[in-house]
Specification:
Length: 65
């Protein structure tokens, strides 16, 4: 897993948007792992970029609180 979800303050974990992004991130991480195992290099790169994008949105959201 690329992201340790335990670093978030407890109150932020229950914020609906944070929870949604966190769930999305976990799903993308699973996809990334599957694509790596399947040798899907292009799919891996696309998913990796999606993970970066979701992480950025999550960090932005957290910094606003």
């Amino acid at each position: 897993m690329l992201v340790n979800h335990d670093w978030m303050p407890t109150q932020m974990r229950h914020h609906p948007q944070v929870q949604e992004l966190s769930d999305q991130l976990q799903q993308l991480e699973q996809d990334l792992s599957r694509k790596r195992q399947a040798g899907d290099e292009q799919g891996f790169r696309i998913t990796y970029c999606q993970i970066s994008s979701v992480q950025q949105r999550l960090l932005t959201l957290l910094s606003q609180h």
